[in-house]
Design goal:
This protein has one domain. Helix content is about 30%, strand content about 5%. It contains three helices and two strands. The N and C termini lie far apart (about 25 Å).
C-alpha cells in the first residue's frame, strides 16, 4: 500500500541534505542510499522502490 507522498524539499531536509545536488553527489559518488518521497522516511538503493511503492529520487528524475 502506497503511503502519503512528501514534498521534495521536506525529504531532502529530513535526510540531512541542503539541496538536490548534494543528495545526488552523496548517492552517485558515495555509498549513500537514495531517499524516496515516502512519509515513512524510506531510503533505497539508487534504482530501488520502497516497500510502500515509492521510487528512489534518482529513478523519479530519470537518472536511472
Amino acid at each position: 500500500m502506497k503511503t502519503k507522498t512528501l514534498p521534495l524539499e521536506q525529504v531532502l531536509a529530513d535526510a540531512g541534505y541542503d539541496d538536490l545536488g548534494q543528495m545526488l553527489e552523496a548517492v552517485t559518488l558515495g555509498d549513500a542510499n537514495a531517499p524516496t518521497l515516502c512519509e515513512e522516511g524510506c531510503e533505497v538503493e539508487p534504482d530501488g522502490v520502497c516497500p510502500h511503492g515509492h521510487r528512489s529520487l534518482l529513478r523519479m528524475a530519470g537518472v536511472i
